[in-house]
Design a protein that fits this description.
Blueprint (H helix, E strand, L loop, with lengths): L10 E4 L25 H10 L7 E5 L9 H8 L3 H5 L3 E7 L7 H9 L3 E5 L19 H13 L4 E7 L7 H11 L3 E6 L14 H17 L4 E2 H10 L3 H5 L9 E2 L4 E3 L17 E4 L5 H6 L5 H16 L3 H4 L4 H8 L8 H23 L1
Helix pairs in contact: 1-2, 7-14
């Protein structure tokens, strides 16, 4: 095992289909136009391969659009996990972009299988314009209609939002919108160049710093809504000095494609082609169980390089104690290697919020 990786994942990402009816301008999925669906045989292999000694694992159904497989097929994929779910060993989460409407039939499934629901939506009006269907038509109204169904059925939901350059000056407006939709929790992903989104308009650190400054200010007035990045940073400052100095182990986050192929470290690597890294495939659940695949992760070149990158970060970056090196995929997509250190992602999602909070605290002290 790699020194930097846990031998037990807390999260497993499962791809029930590559297909997504949406065509978001910043999407990183290269195969989203292909209808390749997971079979119950592969789902059963995933369930059977979950380590018997592992603690509760979150199984996230994601990428393309999970709801595109339809209710009946999705239930077939869930069925092999039922003994594990009933024993408290797995819990399900589905992340939907609204490419297929959430209906009462879907709500029945969410409730029966105790599935947490995450909805992807970026904000009101033009701030959501990057989320479109194949015909280029706006998805906002349809996504809100699905949220209304969830609320009518009293099913809680979380939100993931992408922050583009045009949204960095409108944090308060976005957060007001999401609060009014009824979301108790939101996570923000600042747009980055990943996968198929190789020419995305990544915000500068100054743009991101303004966004986080305004988000912290908003959260101070609206503490009942959890903002993932605000909560994470505040939680870090609540740790003891000794806890902050400890090296964290990264979740290997096995991501399992529709055909059973497994990649590690970053879901965004699934489907990415690279001869040097053997397409990042660590194994296949039809031939090996997940504990075996994870146990030999240290033999993978990209894991070895990521470990080197983490050591480089630890030696050179003043933010390392907080972020612990964060995501592997961004290193590759921006630099072509996992040994790289600073990325746009770490500047915009680690450095910028830390600097924004420090600025606010200094201002408070001066006042």
């Amino acid at each position: 095992m790699s020194y930097w990786l846990h031998d037990q994942p807390g999260t497993i990402v499962v791809q029930p289909t590559t297909l997504c009816p949406m065509d978001c301008t910043y999407c990183y999925l290269s195969e989203r136009h292909l209808k390749q669906e997971m079979t119950p045989l592969v789902a059963a292999a995933i369930a059977d391969s979950i380590g018997s000694s592992w603690g509760p694992v979150e199984v996230v159904w994601h990428g393309g659009e999970p709801l595109a497989v339809g209710v009946e097929r999705f239930v077939e994929l869930l069925t092999p996990f039922e003994p594990l779910r009933k024993a408290g060993r797995v819990r399900h989460q589905v992340q939907t972009g609204g490419g297929r409407p959430i209906t009462d039939a879907w709500c029945d499934v969410f409730q029966l299988y105790e599935i947490g629901v995450g909805v992807s939506i970026d904000g009101p009006g033009a701030l959501n314009r990057h989320r479109v269907d194949r015909g280029g038509h706006a998805m906002l109204g349809r996504t809100i209609a699905s949220i209304d169904v969830l609320k009518r059925r009293s099913i809680p939901f979380t939100v993931l939002s992408v922050v583009g350059r045009d949204g960095t000056a409108q944090a308060g407006r976005v957060l007001d919108f999401l609060r009014d939709l009824g979301a108790p929790w939101v996570g923000f992903n600042v747009e980055a160049k990943e996968g198929a989104n190789s020419d995305g308009q990544t915000p500068s650190i100054d743009h991101a710093r303004r966004f986080w400054h305004d988000a912290f200010e908003w959260h101070r007035e609206n503490p009942d809504m959890t903002v993932r990045e605000v909560d994470r940073l505040i939680g870090y400052f609540g740790l003891s000095r000794e806890q902050r100095a400890e090296d964290a182990r990264h979740d290997p986050t096995p991501t399992i494609g529709w055909n059973g192929d497994v990649v590690l470290l970053s879901p965004e690597l699934l489907g990415v082609r690279s001869t040097l890294y053997s397409d990042f495939i660590a194994g296949n659940v039809l031939s090996d169980d997940l504990p075996t695949i994870i146990a030999r992760s240290a033999d993978l070149l990209y894991v070895q390089e990521f470990e080197t990158g983490l050591e480089n970060c630890k030696q050179t970056c003043e933010f390392f104690a907080f972020c612990q090196g964060l995501h592997a995929g961004d290193r590759f997509f921006e630099h072509g290697t996992f040994t790289a250190t600073e990325t746009d992602h770490c500047r915009n999602s680690v450095q910028a919020p830390v600097l924004a909070l420090a600025e606010l605290l200094r201002g408070k002290g001066n006042g």
